[in-house]
Amino acid sequence: MAGLVSIPKPTLERLPVYYRVLVQCREAGMQYVSSSELGRRSGFDNAQVRKDLNHIWSGGRPGLGYEIDKLTSCLADFLGLHNTTDAALVGAGRLGAALAGYQGFAGYGLNIVAVFDSDPEKIGGTLSERPILSVDKLADIAERLGIRMGIITVPAKAAQAVADTMVSAGVQAIWNFAPVCLQVPKNVLVRNEDLAAGLATLSYHLKELDPLTNAMS
Amino acid sequence: MAGLVSIPKPTLERLPVYYRVLVQCREAGMQYVSSSELGRRSGFDNAQVRKDLNHIWSGGRPGLGYEIDKLTSCLADFLGLHNTTDAALVGAGRLGAALAGYQGFAGYGLNIVAVFDSDPEKIGGTLSERPILSVDKLADIAERLGIRMGIITVPAKAAQAVADTMVSAGVQAIWNFAPVCLQVPKNVLVRNEDLAAGLATLSYHLKELDPLTNAMS
């Protein structure tokens, strides 16, 4: 079960950023990119970029930089983006609709095959052309379709129960947008997208910049 | 302009998580919480919690733990959550609608006062009861209202121009949902919510778990 390449988590989280920048470079018609240019466009420094990419790639050419086509493909392989991942989304609210309707995820291999909700008024309707099913059917359908990824966009109070159902049906990776820490077995990976935390770091920055607030502290 | 308390960025990003957990504890009727319980609910270890909270709080009582009311209030002050922040949101698509419609941000002091878009079919309409204005008016309105926070939910290609306009109008904190690295002056803080990166870390985990993929690598 262990991966072939052991890679630090912070590196793993930067690789998709490099991937996205490389795709943009390719679309702009570039063939090679230097580590410093890749760093500038990604927001990381030069040395960090080289160190990260050394984990998966030894093809940088002195003076020319990285060959964009090859590095992009290598990163996509490494990150598993070439594999299509079927996912179940639970929570057909506004955020669920935003995720289900976002075309860009297809480039990352994400295929939302089913949408679930507990609201009788929503069940039977559609969300971005996918039928909305009762959450009571989640376990059965996830198991039958072999779904390995779950996306949670329900309110905080409902999230743990949804996660438990997903795990019992064999889901191994959960993308959690509910503002709550999920308890899951060790072999299940949870990625929290904590929007409130993002907001709070910005509020803190604004408070720090405000001379009036600081004077009163 | 410098803050009174210097705090490491990773700590700053964990504080909102503690804050949220504390609010949930308070809603559940708890009065005190131990660092280990707070850690369990936040997903961080005991020692980490104590070290982080030591930056802003010296009121933990041996045997009793943290007094939830006081610590919550202290965290909210520290993070600037008691200040109301007026924000401009640019990009009235699905994600913009999800953010504009999310009630939970009010608890973090966020007040989206204006929504902008470039699509003539959207301009003049509303998004979660806010009028959608032409993005041409962004600079003028942001400046006149003294808006300090901008939220970007436009496609990647349009994001830098929107950020430039925000910065020129005095915006000091940008919450960026466009999958692109924005170039801004040093005094402006950008928080990237990189959904594709989150997705890629999950794909990688699933690939690593898959014995067939590993055998073929």
Question: What does this protein structure show overall?
Answer:
Two copies of one chain form a homodimer. With 217 residues, chain A is an alpha/beta fold. Chain A folds into two domains: 9-79, Winged helix-like DNA-binding domain superfamily/Winged helix DNA-binding domain (Arc Repressor Mutant, subunit A, Orthogonal Bundle), CATH 1.10.10; 85-197, Rossmann fold. Chain A has helices spanning 9-27, 35-42, 46-54, 68-79, 94-101, 138-145, 156-168, 195-209, 211-216; strands at residues 32-33, 66-67, 85-90, 110-117, 126-127, 130-134, 149-152, 173-176, 189-192. In chain A, a hairpin with a 2-residue loop joins strand 5 and strand 6.
Task: Give the helix/strand class of chain A.
Answer: alpha/beta
**Sequence of secondary-structure elements of chain A:** HEHHEHEHEEEHEHEEHH
State Rg of chain A: 21 Å
- The coarse overall form of chain A would be globular
CATH architectural group of the largest domain in chain A: 3-Layer(aba) Sandwich
Question: Low-confidence stretches of chain A at least 5 residues in length (pLDDT < 50)?
Answer: none
Number of helices of chain A: 9
Subunit organisation of the chains:
homodimer
Using the coordinates shown, work out and report the CATH topology of the largest domain in chain A. Rossmann fold
Give the spatial strand order of the biggest sheet of chain A. 5-6-4-3-7-8-9
Q: What is the first-to-last residue Cα distance of chain A?
A: 52 Å
